[in-house]
Amino acid sequence: MLTLPEYSDVVAAAKRLEGHANKTPVLTSRTADDEIGAKIFFKCENFQRMGAFKFRGAMNSLARFTPEQRADGVVTFSSGNHAQAIALAAKVLGMPATIVMPEDAPEAKVAATKGYGGKVVRFNRYTENREEICANLAEKHGLTMIPPYDHPDVISGQGTAVKELLEETGPLDALFVCLGGGGLLSGSLLSAKALAPECKTYGVEPEAGNDAQQSLRAGKIIHIDTPRTIADGAQTQHVGHYTFEIIKRDVEDILTVSDDELIACMRFYAERMKMIVEPTGCLSYAAVRKMKDQLKGKRVGVVVSGGNVDLAKLAGYFADA
Ligand SMILES: *Cc1c(COP(=O)(O)O)cnc(C)c1O
């Protein structure tokens, strides 16, 4: 039996993050309110340290290490925001971090991770297994492994974003949260159930990678091939064991949106709200737009998960639209 994290763990995580994580702004937009016919509250984690909510879960996990664990340090595998989050959190806490990244990971991401002081170990993702490499490093050097989503401390840390949102807005009727492995969604559900029990919380994933929607329908975790989508933060092949238990118990439903809908949304954020949001961060509001007939007159929360996008790519999305 798994011992699932609870809202009290989110409260404890919020204490650990004080003075380290940004309390990100909750923005509103008259254009969005008029378009949806509702009151929309955007929780802007694109303004979190290192550009995404992942700093919350990473910082909470590392802050719980014992002195022995701290001395040896942390190891993880990721080519995305989790790598940078772990590297930065380790730097803040003064401990070593080893990040296992594919040989063909974008150089900008490798550079960003090294910039935060992380030690990068490259591997060939066609011939080697990253989880095995991590496990070997952990064993050989006494490192503690922190995975990107399926860990109680990661989930509790991610839950602090929606805790802040609801403390600022008061109860909401509906909440939209993107999901890859489900760390952010499951943490958000812990906060939403505690602070706004009537709120209906929806998970949103890319159409091409609807494994969580399939899993929810099947009642068990479904594995898929790496989906082709511009939402690179949601290119996971399956949800986690911890995250799925919470999602299955508390989520209202899981919705999907297309890449074209994500691009339209990215353009809305840039033009109307003057902010850069990465494709994965657009999932939540893209789903609100699709569901707007059911949201008339409601108070709706939208978690904007991150803003790390290659500017040349961003220009390309806008040029084609
Ligand atoms: C990691 C990530 C996600 C997905 O989070 P999960 O906890 O894996 O569901 C969504 N958006 C951004 C920007 C991310 O970095």
Automatic annotation (TrEMBL):
Give cofactor(s), names only: pyridoxal 5'-phosphate
Instruction: List UniProt keywords, sorted A-Z.
Output: Lyase, Pyridoxal phosphate
- Coiled-coil annotation reads none
Q: Which GO terms describe its molecular function?
A: threo-3-hydroxyaspartate ammonia-lyase activity
| Domain Tryptophan synthase beta chain-like PALP residues, every copy | 19-306
- Family annotation (InterPro entries): ACCD_DCysDesulf (IPR027278), TrpB-like_PALP (IPR001926), TrpB-like_PALP_sf (IPR036052)
- Pfam families assigned to the protein according to its UniProt record, in alphabetical order: PALP
In which domain of life is the source organism classified? Bacteria
Entry EC no(s): 4.3.1.16
Quick check: keyword Lyase in the entry? yes
User: PANTHER family from the entry?
Assistant: SERINE / THREONINE RACEMASE FAMILY MEMBER (PTHR43050), SERINE RACEMASE (PTHR43050:SF1)
Q: Which family does it belong to?
A: Belongs to the ACC deaminase/D-cysteine desulfhydrase family.
Q: What is the name attached to this protein's record?
A: Threo-3-hydroxy-L-aspartate ammonia-lyase
Q: Where does this protein come from, organism-wise? A: Herbaspirillum rhizosphaerae
